Structures are given as structure tokens and as C-alpha cells.
Fold this sequence. Notes:
- By secondary structure, the chain is an alpha/beta fold.
- A hairpin with a 2-residue loop joins strand 2 and strand 3.
- The protein has a domain of 70 residues: Nucleotidyltransferase, domain 5 (2-Layer Sandwich).
- The chain is rod-shaped.
- It has a 5-stranded mixed beta sheet, covered by helices on one side.
Amino acid sequence: MAISIGSGGDDEVNASINTTPLVDVMLVLLIIFLITIPVVTQTVPVKLPQESNIARQTRPENIEIAVDAEGQVFWNAQAVQGPDDLLDRLKAASVKQPQPEVHIRGDQKARYEFIGRVVFAAQRAAISKISFVTQPAAKG
């Protein structure tokens, strides 16, 4: 409410509303919205992949590579001697027509580094299709 300072004996009542606090609150809210909206919205529009569980087609030409918890690599249930042996086998498989798929089965306790080495070797050998084999989630 406003105070009227003046001379004379007529005291007038000022019936206007002081809107300064309302404007202050509105400006603070506007600043908050201006700061938070860019965080909420994505700056780069991307289309995210959809999850799909497809039953695996088991064919004789497919290559099963398993990695156990200690990092040992197995090619169709036979131990691989080292990274060079794995790369040589993948290079030999990559020139076949049609190119076989590589299915990687990694132990859940295996370090990502071990599985990453297999993926890297497949990339170096120019394998075009790599799949990761997982257990389906338990229902219930």
C-alpha cells in the first residue's frame, strides 16, 4: 500500500495494488524456465534404436565365439591359442560367400576388455555381422 505524504488535512486513501512483488516473482520464474528448458529438450535430434529380441537362426556356417570369465576365447567350443590365431580364423571366415555371422557369447563375469578384443578382431577381419547372445529375462 502506498503512503501519501503531502500537506493539508485531507488524507486520501490510495486504493491501488502494489504489483512490484508480483513482477519480481514472475521474473524469477521466467529466468528459471529459461534456464531449465534447454536442459530438458534435446539439442541434437536423434532417433534411438528400438529393442528387439529375435530368435537366433542356427546355421552350420555361423561362428560361435565364447569368452569365459578368465578371458579364454573358444571358437565353436575349441580353445583359441591367442589373439593372432583368432584374427587369422576370422580373416579366413570373412572371405567366404556368404559371409558367416559371428555370435559372441560372453560370460557375465567376464571383463568387457576380453569381449572387446573379440569385437575388435572381428572388425579388423571385416566381419559384417556380429551378434551378442544373451539369456532371456526370467518371467515373474
